[in-house]
Amino acid sequence: MSILCKFELTRASSIYYSGEVVEGHVTLNLLKQRQIEAILLEFYGQTKLEWLDLDKTSMADQIVHNDFSSKELHSMKTLYTNSHKHVCELLELASNNQQQQQQILHPHVEYRYKFRFPIPVHAAATSRCPLGECEYGLRLIVQHPRKVNKEFHQRIVIKNKLDLSENIELREPFTVQQQNSDNDEGIILTTPCTGFTPGQKVPYHIKCKTSQPNCKILVQLNCQITAVGRSQTPCADPVAIKQAKQIINRRKHLPTEIMAYLNLPLDCQIARGPERCEDSMLRYEYLLEAFLIDGCKKILASVAIPLTIGTTPCLEMKMMEEDFEDVICYDNYESSHEEPVTTPLNLTIPSVEYFIGDHVYKSMCELMPLKRNKSLRRSLRYCYKKFVKLI
User: Fold this and answer.
1) From CA 192, how far away is CA 204, in angstroms rounded?
2) Domains in the chain, please, with CATH?
3) 109 strand-pairing partners
4) What does DSSP assign to residue 268?
5) Which of 84, 154, 161, 167 could form a disulfide with 138 if both were Cys (CB 3.0 to 4.6 A apart)?
6) In the structure, what pLDDT confidence band is assigned to residue 75 with cuts at 50, 70 and 90?
7) What is the pLDDT of residues 17-39, one digit of tens each?
8) What is the pTM of this model?
9) GO BP, one example (predicted)?
10) What value does the CA radius of gyration of the chain take, rounded to a whole number of Å?
11) Rounded-to-integer distance, Cα 129 and Cα 220, Å
C-alpha cells in the first residue's frame, strides 16, 4: 500500500465513556507522491438491526409438507431492519508541515494531523448481539482526483456510566415466590440487593417445597435482548419487536434450602436510565431466574428477579484483613518444608528477588545429569543392538 496511516489516541486503550472526548493525532506516510483533493476524518456511531422472522400470514395460506425446500422456507420469512445514527461528525484535516493550497503529498514525509471529537452524553454503548450491533469508530478518507478514495478505520469502544450508590431501592433485599394452588410445589428466591457491577458475584437464597421425587433446581443468569425493527413488506407487520435470550451462567441444586452465587461477566452492558431506555432500539436486561424441574424436565415453578448493572456498586463490600489470613497463600522456597508461610498477597508487591532454597536447587542438579546419562545409555544400547544384527 502506498499510504500508511496510524491513529495515535491520547490513551493507551480506545475505550471511552459517554460524555468524554476522543482526541489524538493521525499520522500519514507516503511511499510515492500523491495528488489529493482533501483529507477527511469522520467520527461515526450507528446502531444496525437485521433479522429474519417467519411470516404467519403466508404460512396460514400455504400447506407446508415434510419435504419442503429451503427456498419455500425462505419465501415465508420477512426481513426486519432498523438503523439509527448516534453521532456523525466530519472534520477536514489541515497539515502542519505544508500549506493546504498545494494539495500534493510528498513521499518519505510524515504528515501529522490533530483531531478532537466530543462523545454525546446519551450515546448508546458499543454492543454486538445476534439481532444487531452498535459500533463507533474513526474513518480517515483520502480523496484522490482520478482514483478510488483510500479509507482507514480505527474502532472506538463506548461505555455508559451509571452510579448505583445513591439508589435506595436497589440496596434493599428483593424476594419473589411462586406457589401452585393445585399441588404443594413452590419456590422462593431472595437476593440481598438488585444492583451490581460487571464481574461481581450475585448471591441468592432459595427455599423450595415439593412432593415429587427426582426434582432439581436450575438457577440461570440470563441476558434478555429486545430489538425494534421495521419491515418494507406490505403484507407483514410494519413494526416488530424481537426478543432473544442468552444464558450467561447457570447452576443446578437439589430441592433444599440453598445459599450460593453466580458470577457476572466483565463485558456486561451497563444499564441506561429509564428516560433513555424508552427510545432505544436495542435494549439489554439481566435476569436471575430459578426453575423447579421434575425428573421429566418439566417446569413446575419458576421465578425471576431483574438486575440492574452499573459502574458504581450500590453496596460497598469492605474486605477485612482477618478474612485473608489463611485464604491466599504461597510457599517460600527459602524456608524449610515444615515452615510454610501463609501471608496474603497484596496488590503492591515490593521488588524483591526470590531464589530457590539450597536443598531444592541441589536436588534439581542431582536429578538432571542422571536423566541425561539414562537417555544416553538407552540410545547407545539401541544402536549397539542394531549394529550387532547387521553383522
Assistant:
1) 7
2) 3-49+85-159 (2.60.40.640), 168-309 (2.60.40.640), 322-391 (no CATH)
3) none
4) P
5) 154
6) low
7) 989 999 999 999 988 888 888 88
8) 0.69
9) protein transport
10) 32
11) 19
